[in-house]
Write a structure and sequence with these properties.
The protein has one helix and seven strands; from the N terminus they run E-E-E-E-E-H-E-E. It is mainly beta and 60 residues long. The protein has one domain. The strands form three sheets. The protein has a three-stranded antiparallel β-sheet with strand order 5-4-6. Strands 1-7 form a two-stranded antiparallel sheet. The longest helix has 5 residues.
Length: 60
């Protein structure tokens, strides 16, 4: 049985079951963004770096 977790997007604060770990500015800090916010932080951004996908459904 998998456990289900929900986290808010660091940009829009909407809860999501899938978030993308990204760097988006000169601070080089990782944030988690949802599907809706991902295009706006990844396109034409010289600071953009992808760090993996966080998923709500994790196997035990």
């Amino acid at each position: 049985m998998a456990r289900v977790r929900i986290k808010p997007c660091d940009r829009c604060q909407e809860p999501a079951e899938v978030l993308y770990r990204v760097k988006v500015d000169a601070s080089e800090q990782w944030i988690f963004v949802c599907d809706r916010c991902y295009p706006s932080v990844s396109q034409n951004n010289p600071y953009y770096a992808y760090g993996g996908t966080w998923k709500a459904h994790k196997p035990r």
